[in-house]
């Protein structure tokens, strides 16, 4: 009966683009999630395919489109997708994490239905269950401006290409999961892939992209990887940075760009060189033995192979920090709405709360765990969002185990790590400052779901209130991920104006799986549909609420 209901939804919506009366267009997709055997790094292995493809289909939409994705889980394990960077306004029901959703059981389906409300930009989706991300199952999301909104480009791109770069393991996700469950690390990745392929770099690869001489093209890059920052560059060409995670930026030229875990950017590249082949190069950063992958860009009517000499990657993280400081919000450009981005003066808003987050690694009962402020998150069998909705949160978790201020033990003292659901209560619509402090030797990357934030500073050392004088309070880029360099801190600011339960997580798959994440609970004071949508009728139920009567729904 349940499958019949989903089928009827699809019949009503049709498998095409259509218009809701008086509303915004609907884009409808039907995805079959299966295993398949392919060889991203030349070794046959089991990979998660979507409609027999890896990477999966690109969701190519426009601001305010309604996206409907009917997912058929044909794996042998429960499964979920998250839509990294899509804000899910009033709708954390569609977030697709284990804190908000029960996973889709094997052999069944679930229909995601969300709107890319007031957003443009480059994003991606990926699985959040059982380390499935190490088996693939990811794809790109392009959200274009509406026709009435001017795009701040001198030249309209002739075409655009989505480039998903990722580090990759030749071990299966089940093997890697066993490592983590047994208390050990996943170890180093085995290589890099570009759109699912390793690229031999011997000139025999088929071209991945094609450009016509004299034309300009848009490349959307996302680091969909698991452990490493990745630098991207194109032989003989410069890249004009135009967009970053949903914001138009000041259009500087770059020879190469560092893209940290979970981050997305888009650039314009003009085919203004001799007509032949050129290599797009991706290589890991901040690793002792860098991995490199290439793909061929072919000029139409070109004559000649790409040069075997690859452009060199930058060295060290000071270079990367300086590049971060060069990124600026384009104050005069419009994004999803007609008004200029700079009309929002975030630097003039009073901070109501400061939360300092310190990432650490340690052991519990001899097993590796990662924590934020001494708490290592554990997903309960009943998702916290459902527990809140049904009014049984006190039976599932405790709020605010984690404190706003934290200082890890000095020297070699062992940190006491608490294993528990990590849920922090925040006040709806407050303007907050979040500090990320990284005392470790590796670069970290964090994502905040449900919001965009202003990345106002990254600096070496420890944060103190006096550091606020160094904040960029005018044109910091509004985005959803932030990197934190070794023994450094980063500061972000945001308004918590999206009611729901929202995940703040490490973008490292290993760290996220072993507890380096938390949830912000931003509840509206009243159960009002103006602030938050009701639980969808088709929501999968699990845990203690599975057979409970439905709570009273929100109303206007």
Automatic annotation (TrEMBL):
Positions of transmembrane segments: none
UniProt family annotation: Belongs to the multicopper oxidase family.
Name recorded for this polypeptide: L-ascorbate oxidase homolog
Keywords recorded for this protein, A-Z: Glycoprotein, Signal
Plastocyanin-like domain location: 33-146, 160-301, 403-524
Pfam families with a match to the protein in the record: Cu-oxidase (PF00394), Cu-oxidase_2 (PF07731), Cu-oxidase_3 (PF07732)
Signal peptide: 1-22
GO molecular function, one term: oxidoreductase activity
């Amino acid at each position: 009966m349940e499958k019949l209901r989903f089928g009827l939804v699809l019949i009503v919506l049709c498998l095409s683009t259509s218009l809701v009366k008086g509303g915004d267009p609907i884009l409808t997709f039907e995805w079959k999630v299966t295993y398949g055997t392919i060889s991203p790094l030349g070794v046959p292995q089991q990979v998660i395919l979507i409609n027999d493809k890896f990477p999966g289909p690109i969701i190519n939409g426009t601001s305010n489109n309604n996206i409907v994705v009917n997912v058929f889980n044909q794996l042998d394990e429960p499964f979920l997708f998250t839509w990294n960077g899509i804000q899910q306004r009033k709708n954390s029901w569609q977030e697709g994490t284990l804190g908000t959703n029960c996973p889709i059981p094997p052999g069944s389906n679930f229909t995601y239905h969300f709107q890319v409300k007031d957003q443009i930009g480059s994003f991606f989706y990926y699985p959040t269950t059982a380390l499935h991300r190490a088996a693939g199952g990811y794809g790109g999301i392009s959200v274009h401006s509406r026709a009435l909104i001017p795009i701040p480009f001198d030249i309209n791109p002739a075409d655009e290409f989505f480039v998903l770069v990722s580090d990759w393991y030749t071990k299966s996700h089940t093997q890697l999961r066993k490592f983590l469950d047994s208390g050990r690390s996943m170890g180093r990745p085995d290589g890099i892939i570009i759109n699912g392929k390793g690229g031999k770099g011997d000139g025999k690869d088929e071209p991945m992209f094609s450009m016509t001489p004299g034309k300009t093209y848009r490349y959307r890059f996302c680091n969909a990887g698991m452990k490493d920052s990745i630098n991207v560059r194109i032989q003989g060409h410069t890249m004009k940075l135009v967009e970053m995670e949903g914001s138009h930026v000041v259009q500087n030229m770059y020879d190469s760009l560092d893209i940290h875990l979970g981050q997305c950017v888009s650039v314009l590249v003009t085919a203004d060189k001799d007509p032949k082949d050129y290599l797009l190069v991706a290589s890991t950063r901040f690793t002792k033995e860098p991995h490199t992958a290439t793909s061929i860009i072919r000029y139409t009517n070109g004559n000649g192979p790409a040069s075997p000499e690859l452009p060199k990657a930058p060295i060290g993280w000071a270079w990367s920090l300086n590049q971060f400081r060069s990124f600026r919000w384009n104050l005069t450009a419009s994004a999803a709405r007609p008004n200029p981005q700079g009309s929002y003066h975030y630097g003039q808003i009073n901070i109501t709360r400061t939360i300092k987050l310190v990432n650490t690694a340690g052991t519990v009962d001899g097993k590796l765990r990662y924590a934020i402020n001494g708490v290592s998150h554990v997903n309960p069998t009943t998702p916290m969002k459902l527990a809140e909705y049904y009014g049984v949160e006190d039976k599932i978790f405790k709020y605010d185990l984690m404190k706003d201020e934290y200082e890890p033990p000095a020297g070699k003292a062992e940190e006491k790590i608490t294993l528990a659901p990590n849920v922090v209560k925040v006040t709806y619509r407050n303007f907050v400052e979040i500090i990320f402090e990284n005392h470790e030797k590796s670069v970290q990357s964090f994502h905040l779901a449900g919001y965009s934030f202003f990345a106002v500073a990254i600096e070496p050392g420890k944060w103190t209130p006096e550091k606020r004088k160094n904040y960029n309070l005018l044109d910091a880029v509004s985005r959803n991920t932030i990197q934190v360099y070794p023994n450094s801190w980063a500061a972000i600011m945001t308004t918590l104006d999206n009611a729901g339960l929202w995940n703040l997580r490490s973008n490292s798959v290993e760290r996220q799986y072993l507890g380096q994440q938390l949830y912000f609970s931003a509840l509206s004071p009243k159960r009002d549909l103006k602030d938050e949508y009701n639980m969808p009728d088709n929501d999968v139920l699990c845990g203690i609420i599975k057979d409970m009567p439905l709570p009273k729904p929100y109303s206007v």
